Records
---
Amino acid sequence: MKSIKEYLKLEESKEQKFLKLYQEIMQDTRLEEMEACIQHGRTDCLSHSIAVAYYCMALVQILSLRVDEQSLIRGALLHDYFLYDWHQKDKSHSLHGFRHPATSLRNAKRDTRINRIEEDMIKHHMFPLTLQPPKSKEAVVLCLVDKACSIYELRRIKRYRRLSRLVMV
Ligand SMILES: [Fe+2]
Ligand SMILES: [Fe+2]
């Protein structure tokens, strides 16, 4: 029987696809800046986004769902692309939970080409806090995995060690 860790590991070809898209986004956008911003607990926004994108792919693999994998990875990597530290007191950060999907989408559209699925994912990932539900399968997967990762991060136990090693290669 497989362990949870084994279940959550992507097949080699999917892991390679994930790394390729991650590297492209790192080149084309300012995603790297998210490393300076704390997301939850001790996890920075960049690590959060990498983990969410990776585990979106893992969930799809476990459930054998047919999705647009490229959009799933890109949309998940950019879902929190708001580029500020929401813990810092600033008027522009008010109502962060409600407003950051729109800010992230605006930034993403400024820095790269965003398709309809990626737009749906970024815009609706905070559902049900923001009232409009996701429309695509990819956005539903993101909505669930984002919440699971956020809960994990709030427990502050450990960070995503394997994933940080993976993206460093
Ligand atoms: Fe978010
Ligand atoms: Fe998130």
---
Amino acid sequence: MFRCGICKQLVDYGLPAIPVVVERRDKTYPSRTYVLRGTSIVDPGGVGWEIAREVAACAPCATRANAPPDPEPPVPEPEPVSDALH
Ligand SMILES: [Zn+2]
């Protein structure tokens, strides 16, 4: 039994607690050089993100939280300008 970190409802015993990332932070990975089996390897590093805060959620909340965002609504085509007035 646990309390969902999103809806705050108690979840019955035996139901899974699904981890949901609720906050991320940017992360910069520095360049590094290491040796593997006698070969020098350069890792260029880069940028990415890491988990800042994660909660245990019930299945419906986890499904909603992990769903892809709604696509942008299509931009309507502009009305064609009529030449009748000219
Ligand atoms: Zn919930």
